[in-house]
C-alpha cells in the first residue's frame, strides 16, 4: 500500500511539473512583422560560454574530489595491511 501511495505521489508531482512548465518558453520572442526587409539583422542568440565554463569547472572539481577520495581510500587500505 505504501508503494502505491509513493507511486501516485510521484506521478502527481511529475504531472504538476509538466503543466507548470508548459507555458514557459525557451525561444526568443518573434521578430517584428517587417524584420529584415531593409537590413539583414541576425537573430538574437543566447551566449553559452559562461554556463559551459561553469559546468566544466564543476565537472573538474567533482572528478578531483572522486580522485582524492579514491587515493585516500587506497592509502588507508595499504596502511591497514602494513599495521597487520
What features would you describe in this structure?
- The model has no long low-confidence stretch (mean pLDDT 80).
- The protein is mostly helical and 84 residues long.
- The protein has helices at residues 2-21, 49-83.
- Helix content is 65%, strand content 0%.
- The longest helix is centred in the C-terminal third of the chain and has 35 residues, at 49-83.
- It has a domain at 51-84.
Q: In a nutshell, what does this entry contain?
A:
With 84 residues, the chain is mainly α. The protein is built from 2 helices and no strands. The chain starts with a helix and ends with a helix.
Write out key terms for the chains shown.
mainly alpha; 2 helices; 84 residues; flat
- Proportion of β residues? under 5%
According to DSSP, the number of beta strands is 0
Query: What's the assembly state of these chains?
Result: single chain
Helix content: 55-70%
* Main beta-sheet strand count, sense and barrel state: none
Stretches with pLDDT under 50, minimum 5 residues: none
Mean pLDDT: 80
Radius of gyration: 26 Å
User: Secondary-structure element sequence?
Assistant: HH
Structure class: mainly alpha
Spatial shape: flat
Helical segment count: 2
Question: Termini, distance in Å?
Answer: 50 Å
Helix-strand blueprint:
Elements: H1 2-21, H2 49-83
